[in-house]
User: What shape does this take?
Amino acid sequence: MANEESDFKEFTDIFRMVLNELGSGIVYFVVDNASKDRTRELCEALSVNDARFITIWAPENRNVVQAYLKGTKLAYNNGHEIIIEMDAGLSHDPRAIPAFLRVLKEGNEVALGSRYINGGSMADSPLYRRFLSIGGTMLAKFLLGARPSDMTSGFQGFHRKVMVDILSYHFLSTGHFYQTEMRYLVRNKRWIEVPIHYRAPSPRVSPKSIANSISSLMYYTYARFYGAPKSI
Assistant: This one.
């Protein structure tokens, strides 16, 4: 959760509706110094009023990957059997969560959110972001031999036994390539794609994140052809 003040009520109202329908579930909000508005205050107020929402204040985070892993590690340590990772601010719709749970309870170890399969979509995204997402997916599939139709989505779910391998792995990514790296590393698990509706209101992707993506992609490409292919 970062700079989500304007969308906070709509996002959490939808989430509460989904949790009510499911009858179970815990949500971990990871907030760090990247958030400059009242997001942390709103998260903590909700946590006081609804015990299903737990706020994690993590000022030590230095990048978004540390934020992802902070939340998933806490969920793992708290004994959850299924862990779903998603972005806030309505980029990812909580109403897709039941579909993730369904496929993970049908024998799949990993559920990958996809905008590019039947039933998926991408809206409110500037051309620049669409180019990075679609172009990144095509490039990763070509260089890494990856099979998922969407290699850059951050909406994904895992069984606990997969998460232990993820948390012990040293990721190269410090930014957006984390999603691609994750999908490549779990390629040998039993995975399936789930259609999602994605909204990306922000067009900004930093040059540093793009540089990290390129260097990480080259590392895994080299390992695929000339070394031991990495996997979890």
About this structure: The helical segments are 8-22, 39-49, 64-77, 97-104, 127-144, 160-167, 177-185, 207-226.
